[in-house]
Amino acid sequence: MRAQESDPIKDEPTVTPDGESLAPRIDGLIVRPLRGIEDKRGEIVEVYRPSWKVHAEPLVYVYQVLVRPAAIKGWVVHTEQEDRIHVVSGSLRWAFYDDREGSPTRGLLNVITISERNRALLVIPRGVFHAVENIGHCEAIFINMPTRAYDHGDPDKYRLPLKNDLIPFDFDDGRGW
User: Fold this and answer.
1) How far apart are the first and last CA of the chain?
2) Number of domains making up the chain
3) What value does the mean pLDDT of the chain take?
4) Residues in CB range of 125: below 8 A, 6 or more apart
5) CA separation (Å) from 169 to 71, 113, 153, 155, 160?
6) Domain span including residue 97
7) pLDDT tens digits for 134-171?
C-alpha cells in the first residue's frame, strides 16, 4: 500500500512461469500461439489447420489487410461471422470488448499484442467488438479467414467511433509508466 504519491507500486503477476497470461479471457476468444520453423533458407509458419480443432467452421474466404504505422482500425462487430486472424508482419495491438447478451464475460475487455515475434491465430467470436492499432514503425499486415465471405450488398459489419460510451478503452492511453 502506498503511503505517498512518490512511493513505488509493486507489480502484480501478469503471466505464469510458462508465459501464459493470467488475465481473464473473453469467452470464445481464442489466442492460439503459432511457431515458426526456421532454417538457413528461411522460415515457414503454419497459419491454420483444421486438425488443430480451434474452430469447427470451414475456410470460405481469405483476405489480407495492411495497417499503416500509428493507424487504428475499429471498433467493429459482426453478428453473422467470426474472424480468424493471423498477423503476418508488424506489431499490432488488438483490443476486444464483449457486449454479448448472456455472455459470462460480458463487459470484459482484453488487449493483446501480436507480432511476427509473438505469433498467434486469433479467433474472434461474433458479437465481440474489436479494434487494432499498428504500434510499430513499419506497415503491418494481417490475414483474415472469416467464417463467411464478405457480402458487398449487405456487409456484416457494425461500427462504433474509437471513443464511445460503451467500450472502456482509449487507444491514446499514454507512453507507459
Assistant:
1) 18
2) 1
3) 92
4) 26, 27, 28, 29, 82, 100
5) 16, 15, 31, 25, 12
6) 30-48+55-149
7) 999 999 999 999 999 999 999 999 999 999 999 999 99
